[in-house]
Amino acid sequence: MLAEWVERLLSYASGALEAIRADETFPAFMQWAHAEGVNYVGGDEALAVALAPVLWSQTPLVRLNFARESLAPPNRNEPCWCDSGRKYKQCCDKVQLPPIPDHLMWMLSLREFKGEQLKAALASALAPAQALLEAGLISAEAGSRGRAQQIMESLFDTSDWSRLPEQAEPGFELLLDLYQERGFTRKKALLLDEVLERGPAFLRGVALEHQCLLHLDSDDLGSARAAFIRAQQTLPDSPTLAYIEAMLLLHEGQPEEAQDRARFWWRRLAKQKDIEPGQLEFLADLAENPRATLAEQMVNSDESLSDSLASLQALFEVLTRPPRLALETQEDGSLLFGQNAEQAVTLGLWEAVFPARIEEEAALALDIDPWETQDPNDWLQQLCACPEWLDTPAVCQG
Ligand SMILES: [Zn+2]
After folding, report:
1. With contact defined as beta carbons under 8 Å apart, do 13 and 109 qualify?
2. Helix (H, G, I), strand (E, B) or coil at 91
3. pLDDT of residue 67
4. What is the distance in A from the centroid of ligand 1 to the CA of 130?
5. Rounded to an integer, what distance in angstroms lies between the CA atom of residue 184 and that of residue 9?
6. For the chain, which has fewer Cβ within 10 Å, the N-terminal or C-terminal residue?
C-alpha cells in the first residue's frame, strides 16, 4: 500500500517539478495540477489538487536563488488555496494525504540541476541534508560519479558538522570510495583528517578504517597500526576491521598471525546476527589463506582491470628466472649496475606505453599514479604481451 503510494507520489512529483520549472509561479502550477496532474494519480483530481500546494511549498525556486516560497495552509473557513472557490475545510482539507517526505522536491531538483545551476544550488547551502544524501546515492547508483561526488562534498562540507544527520554515514563511505576510485587521494586524506579532528563521533570509526588503509598504501606501517588500534576502540565489531587487520599483519610480515587473527574474527563475528553470509565466507577464506584471499579481492575489486591483472598473475607463475644482471664491483666494495644497450631499448619501448616516470621522492616513487591514468589496461596488456620486458630492471622499478 505504502509502496504503491510512494511510486505514485514520485511520478506525480517528477511531473510537478517539470511544470513548476516552466515558469515558477503558483497559479500556473495549479492549472497544471487540474489539467495534467490528475493523470499521475489515476484520475483522482481532489488528490492531484491537494498535493500541489504541499509540493510547491517545498520546491526550491531558481528565481529566488533556491529559497522556497512556502504557503501556509488556510484556516478551515477561509477559501481553499487551490482556488476552487470552496472553503478549505470542504475542499483540500478533506483529502487524506499519506506521508510526504519534506525533502522530496529538493532531492528531485538535485537530480535535475546541471552544471552551473547545480553548483549554485549546492553553494546556496539550502538543500536539506537528507535530500543531498539521497540524491548523491542515487546519482552514484546511476553511474554519475562526478555528480555524486559534487553532491556528497556539499553534504560533508567541513565548515559545519552540526547539520549532519547520523544517517549520513553511507554517504561518507560513498564519498571516500569516489575519491579513491577517481584518484582524489589528497582530498580523501584531507577529509579524513578533518573528520578525525572535528567531525562527529559517528563518522570517526569509518574514518579511522580508511586512514589505516591509506597508511598501508604508502607503506607507513607504524601509523597504520596506530589508526587500526584507534578504529578498533571506536568500532569493536566492524567486519571491515577483520580485513584491515589481516592486511596490516601481512604488510608487517606476519602471515601466521594474520591467519590466527582471521580465525579469531570469524569466531567473533559468526555470533552476530546482522552479519551478511558473504562477509563470513570471506573471513573463513581469510583464515584459510590470508595472502591468496586478499590478492584475489584486489584483483576482483576493479572489474575493468580484472582480466589484465589475472593475465599478469598467470604470467608471473610461469615466468622463468631472468638473466643475471651485469654488475661491476666498485673500489669501495659496492656493486654498480650499468644498463646495457638492449635494456635501454626495452626501457624506451616500455616508456612509450607506461604513463609514469620514476621519481624517487614521490609517494609511489613515480611522478604520477599509473593506476589513475585513462586506462591502466593499455600498459598492463602491453606488459603481458611482452614479458621479456620484465628482465630489464628499470621496467620493474616502474
Ligand atoms: Zn482545495
Report:
1. no
2. coil
3. 97
4. 29
5. 38
6. N
Residues with Cβ within 8 Å of 108's Cβ and at least 6 positions away in sequence, in order, are 13, 14, 17
- Ligand 1 center to 329 CA (angstroms): 95
Contacts of 112 by beta carbon, 8 Å cutoff, 6+ apart = 17, 21
Q: For position 373, what pLDDT does the model report?
A: 62
What amino acid occupies position 139?
S
Question: Which of the residues in the chain have pLDDT under 50?
Answer: none
How many angstroms does the Cα of residue 75 sit away from the middle of ligand 1? 12
Helix (H, G, I), strand (E, B) or coil at 366: strand
Backbone region of residue 51 per phi and psi (left: phi > 0; alpha: psi in -120 to 50; beta: other values): alpha
Instruction: Calculate how far, in angstroms, residue 106's C-alpha sits from the geometric centre of ligand 1.
Output: 24
Q: Could you tell me which residues come within 8 angstroms of residue 8 by beta carbon, excluding any fewer than 6 positions away?
A: 40, 41, 42
Quick one: CA dihedral 41, 46, 47, 50, positive or negative? positive
**Residue 89: CB partners within 8 Å, gap ≥ 6?**
76, 77
| One-letter identity of residue 389 | W
Residue with cell 517528477: 14
pTM of this prediction exceeds 0.85: no
How far away, in angstroms, is 71 Cα from ligand 1 center?
13
Q: How far is the CA of 49 from the centre of ligand 1 (A)?
A: 6
* Residue 85 CA, ligand 1 centroid: distance in Å: 8
Give residue 8 CA to ligand 1 midpoint distance, Å: 20
Q: Rounded distance, CA 11 to CA 267, Å? A: 47
Q: Where are the domains of the chain?
A: 2-100, 327-397
**CA distance between the termini of the chain:** 60
Which residue is associated with the grid cell 593499455? 378
> Quick one: how far is CA 49 from the chain centroid?
39
Query: What is the Cα–Cα distance from 310 to 226, expressed in whole angstroms?
Result: 33
Task: Using a CB cutoff of 5 Å, list residues around ligand 1, an ion.
Answer: 80, 82, 84, 91-92
